[in-house]
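We modelled the chain as a single entity of 232 amino acids. Its sequence is:
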Amino acid sequence: MEPIRILIVEDDLDWLRGLKAYLNRQPDLSVEDTVSTAEEARELFANAEPKADVVLMDIMLQDEPAGIGLAEQALLSWGAKVIMLTSMEEKDFIFRSFQAGAIDYQIKSRFEELPAIIRAVHARQSSINAAVAEQMREEFRRLKRLEHQFKVKEVSDLITPTELQVLEMIDQGHTQTEIANRFFISLRTVKIHVGHILKKLGSPSSKDAAQKIRDLGLFERGHTTGGDGKED
């Protein structure tokens, strides 16, 4: 059986030499090449024939999370399976690596587990860190929900009920003249409301402002009312 071909992308040269020697002692593993900078890796993925079945990719290269983008390039250019290497569990970087196409990750201090991980990944088995990855995804979703809630509250505190009604009618396709007639106010007053809205939301147009409010779900919280006070 042919050994599993491995490429290591790692900027710590001492650790790189040690890892290469350790993996090459495994009878079914072969480190075919190593690179230590993001530039070298990009050039290799762009111009060379696939040299590896599995890529061990350091997340941080020259103090930048360049390994994340390189993971996607390794997948697209070579079809290689990517295992991310990290010194600590940086959840955001690891999650972004999974989004970029990485299959697994490993803490560097537990390098002795890498041979088994490489074999599992090469055999297309599920990531041994699948449960951890799912926990990170759930944490990411939770943080995004909290971020959304904060944005909703911030905008709710910023926009007045009247401005929200004006925006909702704009979102429904009404003109400023129609809005003025609906609320029995002057067209100038409507324009003043729209001007305040654009300034508060930093939007280039009333349609853009309405889109922002719709995306936050604020139109679902209230109803547009006419001059007679009845709901639509």
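As a brief sanity check on the tokenised model: The first helix runs from residue 13 to 24. Residues 221-232 have pLDDT under 50 and may be disordered.
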